[in-house]
């Protein structure tokens, strides 16, 4: 009997788990099994913004990264497979969406060749402040990049 009960719990647990929910299984007696499911929040997270929402801000040619019309702007370098970039993505894009006076260009970076040779950064996410077509400052890693974006708000 106990073997059947354990098997039942395992089967029900697998059914609940594979359907995208987490389950709490409680046994209240030798014949009664109670299952409480909770929605798996990770699978239902909705991204408010995507990089493609900002197509007018993309710079694809490294030669143009330091030659934009503005005299004062930022370049945000991100990698599509970068975990840190994805962690801060929604906050960064939300701030960029709300900016009125500061310009931030987006640069998708897969390799060092995607970065202008005069910009000294080595990984993503990175934020580079450009003033008069020269690098004023550079911030690398989510811990440095995010606070600068938060100041821009």
State the main characteristics.
4-stranded mixed beta sheet, 153 residues, Glutaredoxin, 6 strands, single chain, alpha+beta, two-stranded antiparallel sheet
Characterization of this structure:
Helices cover 31% and strands 25% of the residues. The protein has 153 residues and is of the alpha+beta class. It has two domains: 2-43; 51-152, Glutaredoxin, CATH 3.40.30.10. The strands form two sheets. A four-stranded mixed beta sheet has the order 4-3-5-6. A two-stranded antiparallel sheet has the order 1-2. Strand 5 (126-131) and strand 6 (134-140) form a beta hairpin.
DSSP helical segment count: 4
CATH architecture of the largest domain: 3-Layer(aba) Sandwich
Q: What is the terminal-to-terminal distance?
A: 63 Å
Total domain units: 2
Quaternary status of these chains?
single chain
Strand order of the largest sheet: 4-3-5-6
| Biggest beta-sheet profile | 4 strands, mixed
The overall pLDDT average reads 80
Layout of helices and strands:
Elements: H1 2-18, E1 21-27, E2 33-39, H2 41-44, E3 72-78, H3 83-98, E4 104-108, E5 126-131, E6 134-140, H4 142-152
Parallel strand pairs: 3-4
Antiparallel strand pairs: 1-2, 3-5, 5-6
């Amino acid at each position: 009997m106990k073997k059947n009960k354990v098997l039942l719990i395992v089967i029900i647990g697998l059914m609940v788990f594979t359907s995208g929910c987490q389950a709490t299984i409680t046994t209240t007696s030798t014949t009664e099994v109670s299952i409480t499911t909770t929605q798996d929040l990770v699978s239902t997270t909705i991204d408010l913004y995507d990089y493609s929402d900002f197509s007018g801000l993309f710079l694809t040619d490294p030669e143009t990264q330091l030659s934009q019309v503005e005299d004062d702007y930022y370049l945000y370098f991100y990698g599509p497979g970068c975990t840190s970039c994805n962690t801060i993505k929604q906050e960064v894009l939300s701030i960029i969406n709300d900016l009125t006076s500061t310009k931030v260009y987006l640069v998708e970076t897969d390799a060092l060749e995607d970065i202008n040779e005069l910009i000294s950064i080595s990984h993503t996410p990175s934020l580079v402040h450009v003033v008069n077509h020269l690098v004023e400052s550079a911030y690398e890693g989510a811990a440095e990049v995010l606070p600068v974006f938060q100041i821009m708000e």
